Structure prediction request, 172 residues.
Amino acid sequence: MSPPASPEALPFTEPRALLRALNFLDVTYELVLDEALVVPPPMDRSSLLALDADDEAAYNSRLIVLTDILRDFKVPGRNPTSGLLRLEEHLAAKLPTLDRDAVRQAVQLLDQIRVIRNSAVHPKPRPELTAAHHVLGLSFPVRDFTVAWDSVRAHAERAVSSLQEAIQAARP
Prediction:
């Protein structure tokens, strides 16, 4: 057996794909569970997800918007504090045929974005930081913020789409 391939930076060619994936997730969640999941941020903030990041400030601002959306998922409970991190258990309780592995993998990948964001906003070195960059196919430290943001949003779009597909497949 050969070792698994290292994650790579993913190219991102459709600027609205992440926004569309979040919308599809929210619509599917509402159709299946009769409740909304995504708390829409103000348009001036959500539009940042469709824009390129030419420098570190733009990259960090887009990471903040994305992680705020994920953190604010409307999932019952208070522990853990992030709605994203409560999502798997909530879905498993509501959808018995849920593919928990697919949901867990998507949530874990999206949580790596939080690790990177927190390290950018609160610059205290953390051991998970290098691993988070690796999972998202990023160099550490990030030098090309355009490529890094494209990779982050491509990975996020795929993970959000995986969540949407798992919810849809488990509908009663």
In short: Residues 10 and 81 are 29 Å apart (CA to CA). Residues 2-6 have pLDDT under 50 and may be disordered. The first helix runs from residue 17 to 33.
